[in-house]
Design brief:
This protein is of the alpha/beta class and 266 residues long. The chain is 20% helix and 27% strand.
Length: 266
């Protein structure tokens, strides 16, 4: 690591930042669709060749970018996510039994990550009550013949009267998520790991930063400590162990581009 103080968390390169991620590690990876994806760190991890990764992320990128490059080369053994999206390889591996997939309601996934970062072991939520999410039986892994090889277990369900309404509802218990590593992307960060996210990139990134035992942030702009107003910090440096500057030119993708002919044009 570079720097001059004991709090300096700057890695000299993306490769150095992920150098100790082992086989079979669990990863909380930020991003929503193709926005705020730590693509440089993912690329460095791909170059290392580690396999059997267990990834928690809202989705799994697209076929040739983001987490999709790890998926394409068979590096991911298990995904916990809320959206398959338009990644055809994700769907193929899941349906063929090559990939284990735990699908989680999006809000529940966000709260499970936040709870993990806050030290809350579990919480009750109405999301998924009365469905297979609560009852169990959702296919996590298919067998070669299309049968369900691994199914989701039933969750604990209780009834609560919320806010004294007099009407009880069912709530199911969701467990927190904590991963070995968190990989996130921020617009700006300082050498002590304080992070600022811009616009829609402030999606799952702060939550994944909280949920990683060791969190690694790639940032477009690296500044000195004290250059970020404390009121502007989205993720405090206490949640971040390593930070690497990737510059503003690191590739950003648009998931779906829609255009129209300008009115009055030929």
């Amino acid at each position: 690591m570079g720097g001059n103080s004991g709090l300096d968390k700057v890695a000299l390169s993306p490769a150095e930042a992920v150098a100790d991620v082992p086989e079979g590690a669990s990863l909380a990876v930020g991003g929503f669709g193709l926005c705020g994806v730590p693509s440089v760190l993912i690329g460095a991890l791909h170059d290392r060749g580690v396999t059997q990764l267990r990834v928690v992320s809202n989705n799994c990128g697209v076929d040739e970018w983001g987490l999709g490059v790890l998926l394409r080369d068979g590096r991911i053994a298990r995904m916990t996510s809320s959206y398959v999206g338009e990644n055809k390889e994700f769907a193929r591996q899941y349906l063929s039994g090559e990939l284990e997939v735990e699908l989680v309601p999006q809000g529940s996934l966000a709260e499970r990550l936040r709870a993990g970062g806050c030290g809350i072991p579990a919480f009750y939520t109405a999301a998924g009550a009365g469905t297979l999410v609560a009852e169990g039986g959702m296919p996590w892994r298919f067998g070669p013949d299309g049968s369900v090889a691994v199914a989701s277990p039933a969750k604990e369900v209780r009834r609560f009267d919320i806010a004294g309404s007099g009407e009880e509802r069912e709530y199911l218990l969701e467990e927190a998520i904590v991963c070995d590593f968190g990989l996130v992307r921020a617009w700006k960060g300082d050498r002590e790991g304080n992070l600022v996210f811009r616009a829609s990139a402030r999606n799952f990134n702060p939550l994944c930063a909280m949920a990683g035992r060791v969190t690694i942030a790639e940032v477009e702009r690296l500044v000195e400590p004290g250059r970020i107003d404390p009121d502007d910090v989205h993720t405090p440096g206490i949640f971040v162990q390593r930070i690497v500057e990737v510059g503003p030119d690191a590739e950003k993708r648009i998931e779906r581009r829609t255009t129209r002919t300008h009115v009055g044009s030929d």
